[in-house]
Amino acid sequence: MSAARMRPQIVVSVEQALSMSYATLRFRHLGWRVIRIEPTPRPGLRTKGDPNRYIGRDLGAGEDRHSYFVAPNVGKESLVLDLKRPEGQQVLHRLVRTLPADVFCTNTLPAHHRTLGFDYDTLRAVKPDLVWAGISAMGLSYPKVPGYDPMMQAQAGFMDLTGHADGPPLQCGPPITDYKAGDEVYAGVLLALWQREVTGQGQAIDVSMAHGAVSWLHTFTPMLDMGSPPDELRRAGNEHRQFIPVNAYETADGWIYIAIGSDVQWKRVVAQPLFASLDEAQYATNEGRRADKDNLFRRIGEITRRHDYDTLAAALAEAKVPYAPITAIEDVPGLDFYRRRQTHTVTPGGREIRLPPPAVETEHLAEADRALPFAPAYGEHTDAILDEIGYDAGAIADLRQQGVVA
Question: Which pTM was predicted?
Fold first, then answer.
């Protein structure tokens, strides 16, 4: 993208839950403007807008900004619009055309895109160079399939790969297929905007959570065709399936993860007095260690349990072997690499909330930009945005009276 076009892009997003909210948060980290569109209140329902608004702890920021909603939505604007009505769709189209919007995003079920007036063909007619991005369970080819992270982890085999060998299938802690889909939107949109500089045309980006999940199986499914039986691939606890003795080990004061990834590293480890009792010919090669792995895991554990973390870390550092403490989640924000690049926000009541750092440090994220405005209240920016695109006070009042906006 040329220097002349390096202005902040404008993103309009019909989003809820996490996958697309995370993608547009990454755009917000670039300093882009993100306007999230939420539906008008539904008769008979107490909650309004994104269901995630009401999940988690009450922060004293109103009933519509509970803790689970905040982090993925800091710095965004909220516009409430009834897209089931033609008048609401007209407002959306005017928004896209007048701002003008560079990117439109949605993680609404694809079967509803056209009836809500924001399928790619409809919005391309409004603004031909618009970059359109959608996230769904199985992609536009499966328009009626809903998608949630746990079901994607189950369907894509992740749960069969997670947990201990003698235990049940487990899901990964973070909602990784949501985040994977969000990252694919982020990458796809950046590429599409770069291509637009050359072609002048927008394009549609169709992100399938299922395809994103199975795209991560390079060290699993191909191995089935190369002689590995399924039991060699599935749940293995904390051990590495190929490199032995990579595993988690209990220490006298906690846990340590040791990643010995080669025979050379093993030789350096057993040269340390702490691990010298393991210097045996049968363990000289990875396959030799694999042949006796359960016994080897046990013997290493007997050593690590007799020493504290610092003592073990010193020996492993001397051996130039990767290792790490197994950090309690409450201690992660205090880690130096986290703290140095974290962002933060402040609740309306003045409480500072530490936020995860962006995945990639860029020149756009200056020190001042690390303080992001608190997540928007439901419909907080509706009137301001409508005024910006040319609706006067009387017209806004009419739209509100008709229930088109809220």
Answer: 0.92
CATH architecture of 247-327: 2-Layer Sandwich (3.30)
What value, to the nearest 5°, has the Cα angle with vertex 366 and ends 70 and 197? 90
What is the torsion angle, in degrees rounded to the nearest 10, for the CA atoms of residue 335, residue 336, residue 341 and residue 344?
A: 50
* Residue ranges of the chain with per-residue pLDDT less than 50: 1-5
Query: Domain spanning 3-215+335-402: which CATH class is it, in words?
Result: alpha beta
pLDDT of residue 57: 95
Q: What is the CA radius of gyration of the chain?
A: 26
Sign of CA dihedral 52, 187, 195, 7: positive
What are the residue numbers of the active site?
178
Handedness of CA 174, 369, 55, 145 (dihedral sign): negative
DSSP H or E run through 161? helix 158-161
Domain locations in the chain as residue ranges: 3-215+335-402, 247-327
Rounded Cα–Cα distance for residues 52 and 64 (Å): 9
pLDDT at 3: 38
What average pLDDT does the structure give for the chain? 94
